Amino acid sequence: xxxxxxxxxxxxxxxxSASDGVGYTAAQLRIEDLLAAVPALQxxxxxxxxxxxxxxxxxxxxxxxxxAAAVQQQLDRPDVAGVVVTxxxxxxxxxxxxxxxxxxxxxxxxxxAAMRPATALVxxxxxxxxxxxxxxxxxxxxGVVVAFAGRVHDATQVRKxxxxxxxxxESVDGALVAxxxxxxxxxLGRWPVAEALGLGRIAAVAGSWPRVDIVLNHAGADxxxxxxxxxxxxxxxxxxxxxxxxxxxxxxAALREAERRxxxxxxxxxxxxxxxxxxxxxxxxxxxxxxxKARVELLLDLLAR
Length: 305
Description:
Elements: E1 2-8, H1 31-36, E2 46-54, H2 61-75, E3 82-86, H3 92-103, E4 108-112, H4 125-136, E5 143-148, E6 151-154, E7 158-160, E8 169-171, E9 178-181, E10 184-187, H5 200-203, E11 212-216, H6 224-231, E12 236-241, H7 249-260, E13 264-269, H8 291-304
């Protein structure tokens, strides 16, 4: 049995014209409608449930909590081999990393999405959904992955890298988990594993998540944004630095002041790929995590505190 959980997104979006690939409204169709558009899945042992119905640019903590609980509930069923989550592309990399860290499942949890709405002349959602089901049903598959445009990405590596192309997602260090070719999963790397933080990390939070913001280093960056965040009671800051997480002197000084005042600060990079080296005398590194994934990691760390 494969369970498919719907959350909305472009894959469930509609436009007034089939030739309109950008002026659509996301999250209009139910998960049952998406399945009906994939005849090749008819007759498969599938269950479909709607967890949320939103544009993923509006993803929020409450939906993350509800989704994590729904995924775990299905994984706990002996008859369920894997779970598929349909999602929007905008924040898919954050949701996938969140589920990876909280659940770290031994069964496959496969997120998929689309860059074109369901009403497009050639929608990409049906193929992506079909592929995601194949990955979820693959013997030996495990962990949180993203199945998109025929490729399977590790939740820790996947990033959205293009605003329009249908193959928008990349594994930033190039290490694909698998490819899906004519419905056949060809494994290339290892399925992701991690130590699960558990639902308890987020279960007790009721509208009181820590506030963690991202600030960007750029030409002329200073500390005014950091000081404004301090006035707003920020709990954590991810600095998206240039290159190897480098920061202009004024921004660096403001972040160090925030750290002295009890705010948790980590450095990531605004580069598309590559780690930030942890070096003596510098603010702590987020490693190879992108700024948005470093934010998820910092949120979960602050919840534990």
